[in-house]
Amino acid sequence: MTEITNFRGEAEPQSRESRIEQSVSELIRRVGERVRKARERKGIPRRVLSEMSGVSPRYLAQLEAGEGNISIGLLQRVALALDHRVEWLVGEEDPWSSDALRVAELFRAAPADVQQSVLRALNPEPAEVMRAHRICLIGLRGAGKSTLGALAGQALNIPFVELNAEIEEQSGMAVSEVIALYGQEGYRRLEAQAIERIIATHDTMILAAAGGVVADPETYNTLLGHFHTVWLRTTPEEHMARVRAQGDERPMAGNPEAMEQLKSILTSRETLYARALAQLDTSGQSVESSLARLLRLIEDRKFLS
To answer: Which helix (H) or strand (E) holds 165?
Structure first.
């Protein structure tokens, strides 16, 4: 509190009226300084700001000099012309040194999806709420994700979605064409978008994800946070045999080292797959046996409760 001295040289508290006047003066000075800084940062001449806001150049000059006595209405006009909130001009914290105000400005200018991501990060819901009743099967091709996912969906009377089918539906082309046109990076973007759409439209479902989804950290974290993930695993030999049994000869065609490459991929992703909430080994199991074990796992872990 500012103090004055009496005739004995003793400090006396400043009067309430003086404090109010001083606070008003400080506010007008602060607003003027921020208007000037905001205008200069945007490279807007005072004449242009006058035209944009409808406030006279003379009054803007007084305002920036800390001599204005601006009304709330006029101040709002200036704030809008500078693309700022009026609170940003009058707040006590310096917006150029305050992380909170800087973040608030960035948040306001960000797209809706970015704002939602920020809100989720700053105020996360409990994991059970975020995952809802969504189940995601992950693992290498040939693990049984599509077969078991479809059968489990039928048994539980809940939707089954294959991630690549969702990507193809939205893009209007086969995954192979997507990769040929846009490369792996383009495919990964469509994959991430497809997962966000599925989260937004399904609270209860089973999803079969592509084997490489774990290679993108952000997308995989989204899966882990919004789905009860189950790693379907088997031996490299069974992976290869199942893919070939489906009529797909690509893994072996003209590539004598295909099995070694498959083992290398499995080894490199093992730690990532192991981040799933649960694992189910389908090695040497019939489809019926694997399905029964998957349904039991879902019930025991209360993924749909």
So the answer is: helix 163-171
**Structural element, H or E, at residue 289:** helix 287-300
List of domains in the chain? 3-116 (1.10.260.40), 128-300 (3.40.50.300)
Contacts of 305 (CB under 8 A, 6+ apart): none
Q: Report the distance separating Cα 232 and Cα 141, nearest Å.
A: 10
Tell me the C-alpha distance between 121 and 129, whole Å. 14
The helix/strand/coil state of 237 is: helix
* pLDDT for residue 1: 43
Q: What is the pLDDT of residues 194-251, one digit of tens each?
A: 999 999 999 999 999 988 899 888 899 899 999 999 999 988 788 777 777 765 555 4
Pick left, alpha or beta for residue 216 (phi over 0 → left; psi -120 to 50 → alpha; otherwise beta).
beta
**CA separation (Å) from 58 to 50, 68, 135?**
9, 10, 65
CA distance 88 to 96: 10
> Is the Cβ–Cβ distance between 268 and 214 less than 8 Å?
no
262-276 residue pLDDT tens: 788 888 888 899 999
